[in-house]
């Protein structure tokens, strides 16, 4: 939960795709691609797992980040 609403920000392994609430949380906290020196905005980027879902990564807010396609 995000502490203010009953919306879960941890989805575990139940879904690979970030939820709308997770996307909004990332937009509020990161705004742009998390690549070093990169300032590509979220609207031109994707949500990625830090530990890949294929490698057992969870779809939890702590394991998600904004990354541009290049
Ligand atoms: Zn980038």
Record keyword descriptors for this entry.
70 residues, alpha+beta, two-stranded antiparallel ribbon, 1 helix, 2 strands, globular, binds zinc ion
Write the layout of secondary structure elements.
Blueprint: H1 20-29, E1 45-49, E2 64-68
Antiparallel strand pairs: 1-2
Bound molecules: zinc ion.
Residues 33, 35, 38, 40, 67-68 line the site of zinc ion.
Number of helical stretches of at least 4 residues: 1
- Report the sheet with the most strands, covering strand number, pairing sense and barrel closure: 2 strands, antiparallel
**Order of SSEs:** HEE
Please state roughly what percent of the residues sit in beta strands, choosing from under 5%, 5-15%, 15-25%, 25-35%, 35-45% or over 45%.
Answer: 5-15%
Total strands: the figure is: 2
Proportion in helices: 10-25%
Which structural class is indicated by helix and strand composition? alpha+beta
Rounded mean pLDDT score: 91
Radius of gyration: 12 Å
Gap between N and C termini, in Å? 32 Å
Shape: globular
Which small molecules are bound?
zinc ion
Show unreliable segments. Answer: none
Lateral arrangement of strands in the main beta sheet:
1-2
């Amino acid at each position: 939960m995000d502490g203010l609403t009953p919306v879960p920000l941890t989805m575990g392994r139940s879904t690979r795709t970030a939820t709308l609430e997770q996307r909004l949380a990332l937009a509020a906290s990161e705004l742009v691609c998390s690549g070093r020196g990169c300032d590509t905005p979220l609207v031109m980027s994707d949500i990625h797992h830090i530990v890949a879902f294929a490698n057992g990564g969870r779809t939890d807010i702590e394991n998600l980040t904004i990354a541009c396609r290049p």
